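FYI - complex with 2-acetamido-2-deoxy-beta-D-glucopyranose, inputs then prediction.
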Amino acid sequence: MNTLLSRTNAIFAFTLSVLASLTLMCALSTTLKEYNQLVSVKIVATKKLVKNVADYSAGRERNDLGFISFNLDADLTPAFDWNTKQLFLYMTAHYKTRNNALNQVVLWDHIIQRGEPTKLQLRNQHTKYYFWDDGNGLKANDNVTLTLSLNVIPNAGLLPISTVPSIHSFSFPNEYITKNA
Ligand SMILES: *[C@@H]1O[C@H](CO)[C@@H](O)[C@H](O)[C@H]1NC(C)=O
């Protein structure tokens, strides 16, 4: 049958399978890519203070609250390939306390859309989120590690999350500050 309808149907089905296979190839082309190994990131904490204040979300106990500022130099250009739609970045602090072998606190995040500048140069950037400890584990803590993680949001495919291998460690002071930071 050589009707207009059957020809249209054949063209439509063919177009659809071409698009589907292109999308699949686009997704597969970046599945094994280790974006975290390709970017360069340097973080340095420039201010580190700790207060002991009432945490109303924890029944008014007095817990440690950290205040840090940081410099971030990052070149995320290699994370933008043909399949990258946007990049979600977040910075996490990792540390050990008497109560917990591992504490992780997300302190800051940032989204880079395709087409926006892919190099970041931040100076004395404040954190976006509170750095609460669930006890008194920040004062005099001598190994707090900052890492940057990437979540690559692709046009097609998986949403890989990975952490950049370069890390920065710092110590909190031995004394609480009492005036406003
Ligand atoms: C600091 O902590 C990190 C993990 O959070 C660990 O890899 C590193 O070995 C520690 N450094 C020291 C000097 O304990």
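Residues 94, 143, 145, 169 surround 2-acetamido-2-deoxy-beta-D-glucopyranose (CB under 6 Å). The chain has a mean pLDDT of 92.
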